[in-house]
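Q: FAD-dependent oxidoreductase, please. Structure only.
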Amino acid sequence: MKKVVVIGAGQAGSSLVAKLRNEGFTGLVTLIGEEHVPPYQRPPLSKKYLLGEMELERLFLRPESFYGENDITLHLDETVQAIDRADKVVIAGGESIPYDELVLTTGSVPRRLPAAIGGELEGVYVVRDLKDVDAMAPEFRDGAKVLIVGGGYIGLEAAAVAAKKGLQVTLVEMADRILQRVASPETSDYFRTLHQSHGVNILEGVGLETLTGEGRVAGAKLSDGSTLDVDFVIVGVGITPATALAEAAGIEIDNGIKVNKLGQTSDPHIWAAGDCASFPYKGGRIRLESVPNAIDQAECIAENIMGAGKTYVPKPWFWSDQYDVKLQIAGLNAGYDRVITRAGDKDGSVSFWYYRGDELLAVDAANDPRAYMVGKRLIDGGKSPAPDLVADPETDMKALMKA
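A: Structure for FAD-dependent oxidoreductase:
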């Protein structure tokens, strides 16, 4: 009987084992996770869950009973020590678990501040998993002073929650502007204004020099020479793919675990999906840190384990919730040379359309679901309406679909 073992019980791992069963796979399926709870959604952790608007059980991707009912062996609170490729076994908890096909859905790990600048002081947090958010939740007291390091989406989402809960929020971003790595100046301007209107103090072009405190963080010295009194710190300076297990097993790494168009690593019996995997895309190689990619890539691999031979072709989309604004992003904006701003139908709604020459690459839509849906259909279909049409406020969205 064929044996499939999946290491990493997150969105990708859960999606993969469910897809195997939905496609009629009758072999043995084992899912191994380091956390003590079944696979859950991560995006609400730093938003609704932290705000107290979502209970733990509602985070679960599927009820815990799902795994037993579908004959999926679920190992929780268990760390994999090694992969033995020669004998095709996984070593976990002192046990050897045999596999015919192994899938790595190990996700990513947050970058932390170096200990030398106070990164290991009590009261310094990252936002990645349930234990991170549970640990910081008691800090969110009305009037508390929080420093957020990093002006990407994680940092901005944390700032929004803190501001909504009545904290005094300062956010520092070393780059010239927030969201510089992932968005246009227009999108940055939109979110800077939004956060400032909620009382967040945003400092751009300013880095963190050091955190201060005896045992617990109490202050911060910034690169411009200024100092801050702080009660706690949230670090949102990016993530790195979790590749240590694959590296130790001698699997090829290239900005993540390198996979081919099917999802196979340099070992054809080992596959990888989600945040940890880099894959071929438009003549290059990319790694996508998103829920949709984790699901779609994992499901494609499940089918390929069963012999489908499908090439994984992503249709990238992302989202971010901040205050009462829902940002929806379609496509990938790398290489853009022009951004068109288009007002939405409702007050405060807007979309930013990224072009390279006459090619539409991506759309950022803030409280404008219609622009997002039209943009996504166009991008997924390889269509690019003329930039002047998008720029013209008289142009109806339906006309863009026909352009």
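A: Brief note, in case it's useful. Residues 291-305 form the longest helix (15 residues).
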